[in-house]
Amino acid sequence: MTQSGLEHDVGLVCDLIERNRKEGGRTIIGIAGPPASGKSTLAEAVVQTLNTGAEGISAKASLLPMDGYHLDNRLLESRGLLARKGAPETFNSEGFCETVKGFVLSKRETFHPKFDRHMDLAIANSISIHADTPVVVVEGNYLLLKSVPWISLRDVFAATVFVCPPLDALRDRLQQRWIKHGLDPETAALKINGNDLPNAELVIRESYEADLCLSQNYTEFGLRYAY
Fold first, then answer.
1. What is the mean pLDDT of residues 108-131?
2. Which residue, 150, 157, 145, 156, is CA-closest to 13?
3. 102 phi/psi in degrees, rounded to 5
4. pLDDT value at position 226?
5. DSSP 3-state of 87
6. Interatomic CA distance for residues 199 and 35, integer angstroms
7. What is the widest separation between alpha-carbon atoms in the chain?
8. How far apart, in whole angstroms, are the C-alpha atoms of residue 68 and residue 121?
């Protein structure tokens, strides 16, 4: 994957946003895909491109990643879910979906959690979305799932994007990530086969069709760690 390939996909998404802008209201865009697909890299690049030349406190676009809504590790451990961190049941899914739906009519600045990957926890009120920001890009694994509560977002999104390289590419990328985070290859494989790939397969199998589907893997550009 070359830099021009990423730029090409950013251009496709920006064109999609422009075609689906809501006049006089917020335009909410969903970018989804399995773990290690490149959705975080794409979403960040799209928001950066939309904000080129923006001045003042109010940006043209803001980004809300779903991973800020991870349940705390202590809560997951008490429920026997720590090993499944990243699966749908390990998020505050209802709270996240209510937040996204609230963007449509919000007339005030709002504050949201952001996941710190080094600390492995969400930090409250780390993301600010100004009342006058017209485009909110929402990014996460499960945004397009056909199950409750995720399906409630379908009518909220003005347009949707799904990023999904082949499973073999996802496996390779996940292996590289876990090894980079200090795991030996055997332990990394256990995590991938026991959690990451089942989550990826769920996303691929149970997501509804997006307005724009992309298959690239932005490995060369330092994908953020994403569950």
1. 93
2. 157
3. -70, -20
4. 35
5. strand
6. 8
7. 53
8. 8
List, in order of start, the domains of the chain with CATH numbers.
3-220 (3.40.50.300)
Two structure tokens written together for 178: 């876990």
* Predicted TM-score of the model (pTM): 0.91
Q: How many residues does the chain have?
A: 227
Please report, as a single letter, which amino acid is at residue 60.
K
Question: What confidence tens digit (pLDDT) does each residue in 184-196 have?
Answer: 888 889 988 999 9
Please tell me the number of Cα atoms within 13 Å of 107 on its side-chain side: 1
- Which amino acid does the sequence have at 145? L
| CB atoms closer than 10 angstroms to residue 52 | 7
Cβ neighbours, 10 Å, residue 125: 10
Give the pLDDT of residue 117: 81
Q: What pLDDT is stored for residue 220 in this prediction?
A: 40
